[in-house]
Structure formats: structure tokens, C-alpha cells
From TrEMBL:
Major subcellular site: membrane
The keyword Isomerase is annotated on this UniProt entry: no
UniProt protein name: Flotillin-like
Recorded topology in the membrane: Lipid-anchor
Amino acid sequence: MLKVAGPSQILVITGLGIKDILLSQKKWIFIGQKCIKVDISPVNYTFDVQAMSAEKLPFVLPAVFTIGPRVGDDASLLKYAKLVSAHDKLSNHVKELVMGVIEGETRVLAASMTMEEIFKGTKQFKQEVFDKVQLELDQFGLHIYNANVKQLVDVPGYEYFSYLGQKTQMEAANQAKVDVSEAKMKGAIGAKEREGLTLQNAAKIDAESKIMSIRRQGEGNKEEIKVKTEVQIFKNQRDAEVEQANAELAKKKAVWSQSAKMAEVEADKAVSIREATLQMEVEKKNALTRTEKLRAQDLSKANVNYDIQVQEANADLYKKQKAAEAILFEQQKTAEAQRASADADLYARQRAAEADLYSKMKEAEGMAAVAEAQGFYLGNLLKQVGGNYSALRDYLMIHGGTFKDIAKLNAEAVRGMQPKINIWTGANGSGVGDGVSGSGGAMKEIAGLYGMLPPLLETVNDQTGMLPPSWLATLPTDSNKNSKV
């Protein structure tokens, strides 16, 4: 199927046999391909951009931008077809996209300028906004065909331009008042000046009239005296002119003579000066020649010395490089030997650690086996004693010699104590029980209780030093304490 686009349209074709996107005015569309017509005519976008100047004064910038895809640029048309053509140009998506770019760049630019700079440089501000917005729209394949920035408008609550207009109006009104006052002042001063000039001219004319009348009366007398005086003056002038002419002639002769002598002297001096100048030039040329000769000699010597020093430095550098290489090689070999020794030592330590670990593992296995055998042994013993833990404990203590060790510890504990042992008997030399054998059982118990009192009281006296009360008992003296039966 043949598809043909309109004058302000372009075909966007994708599908079978097309790698990316194909743009064309007319094209055969085959099965497996998809074609849409994209309108590339520009569209007007009207915005009221709110921005803020460097003084943090908000304002509204009404603007109208005519924006559309860049015709004739395949790369821009491809971007437009991929990114924007899927939406209607008058849709909110495209409008918000364009408005976001314009608002962002306008606010950034306005934040770097004062309100006065924005107001006075509207043309420059418009051009900078145009350039920055165009730079951002290039990535969408859009081009600004026309941009119209209207007059700035105040934001409600920030009447900057209103106050600025009122200020300009008041300044003009005040200037007009000043101009009117100056005109009135100049009119009053001019009228007074005219009146004064009129009076001055009238008085001047009267005085001149009186002077003319007096002057005419004296002019007749003056004419006679003047004629006589002029004749005498003319005669004196003629004599003075003759004398002056003679004096000037003599002066000119002296000047001419002086000039002639000075010219001769100047000619001689000029010749001498010229000779001295030429001699000086010759000396300069000779000095320059000698200087260049010495310079050439010194330069050649310096070049030779430089070449020699360069050769020596290169030789010294070569020797130092070889020495450094030898030292580096020796250090590398030493490091390799140390590394090999360290590897061997590490291997030996690893083997020793493995052997130690193996022996400890075997020891642990032996201890585990012993513990298992002891557990089996104790289990059998407990089973043999019928589950009596006390009997098992006594057997283990006897078998392990625990009672023997306890006896030794007790003997060691009481050794050196030297205890006092007293044996008490009855009056007839028999035991306590024998003295009351013929009595009943109750008397025997009472006799036993009274037989326990003497040793108890003596023990308390030996340990604490306390004596029993005399009404209870009296302890025997030291001579009778150790009596034995």
C-alpha cells in the first residue's frame, strides 16, 4: 500500500526490514510494517512564567513561543518522532514538557539578574532565554521558530512595576513644577532687568547730550591749538624718525656683522662636530667588531665546554645507571633468596603445626576413648550395686584412697594441738554406770547427767577462763586435776 504524507506531515515507518525508524514523505507499506503520519507544523504556546530576580522580587513574564520540529534535520526529526510524536502537540504532556523547560531556564536566568537589568535589558534577556531554552529543546528535536516576550507584570502583593511607574510619574510631575517655577523666576527677573535697562539708557542719553554740547564748544578752541601742536609734533617726529633711522641702521649693521661672525664660528664648529661624530661612529663600529669577535670566541669556548660537560655528565649518568642496575639486581636476588627461605620456613612451620594438630587430635581421641571406657565402667559398677549412688561413691572413694587421704589430713590438722584429756570416775573407783547399777533406769540417766557436768565445766574453764558459780560446783585444784583411776 502506498502512503503519502501531506505538505506539513511526515511518515514514520517501523517494522519488518527497518532497523530503527524510517522517515519519508511517501512510501510503500508492506505486511509487517506500521506507518503513522506525524504533523510537523509549529504550534504557539502561551505561558505566564513566574520567576524571581536577584533581589528576591517575584514577577510574571508573559511569553508566546512558536515551537515545532526542526524541518530538514533528520536527527532532530528522529528525536521528535521517538519522544514527542506519540502525544498530541496540544496535549498537556507536550505543553507541560515545553513549559517546564521554559520556566526552568527563565527562573535560573532571572535569579542571576537584578530587576533593573531585566527591565532595561529586555532584548538581551529575551535572547538569553531563547538560547538556553533552544539548547534544552534540542534533545527533543524541537526548534523555536519565534519567541515573543511581553512586558513584565507584577505578582499580587509585590507591585514593583506599579511603584516604579508611580515613581516615574511623580518625578515627571515634580520636574514640570520645577520647570514652571524656573520660567516664572526668569520672567520676573527679565521684566525687572528690562525696566532697569530702560532707566539706564535714558540717563545715558541725557548725559551724552550734555557732553556733546560741551564737547562742541571746546572743539573750536581745540582745533586752533591742535593745528599748532600738530605742526610742532610733525617737525619733532621727522627729527626723531631721522635719528631712529640712523640708530636702526647702526643696529642692523652690528647684527649683520655678528651674524656673519657667528655663521663662521658655527661653520667651524659644525665641521668639528661632524668629524667627532664620524670618529665616534668609527669607534663604535670597531668596538662592535671586537665585541662580536670576543663573543664568538667565548661562545665557541662555551659550546665546547658544554659539549664536554654533556659528554662527562652522560658518562657519569651511564656509570651511575649501571651501578644502580647492579645494586638493584643484587637486591632482587637477595629478596628472591629471602623469599625462598621464608617459603621454606613457612612450609616447615605448616608441617610442624599440622603434626602438632594431628598429635593433639589423636590425644583428644584417646581421652575420648578413656572417658567412654570410664563411663562404661561406672555404668557397670552402678548396675552391679543396684543403682545405689551412695554405695558407688563410697566404693570409688575407698578404691581411690580418698578416706586414707582424709585421715592423713585430719592427723596433720590436729598434730601439735596437745589436747587435755581428763577421765572422771565415781567415788568407789567404778564408772558412772556401775555406781547406780542397783537403781532403776531413771536414776542411771540422772547419774550419767551429773557425771557429765565436771568435764563440761572444766572444758569451758580451759577454753574461756570462766568459772562456774560456787552454788553449782567447785573445780578441783591443780594437784587433783590429773588424778587417774
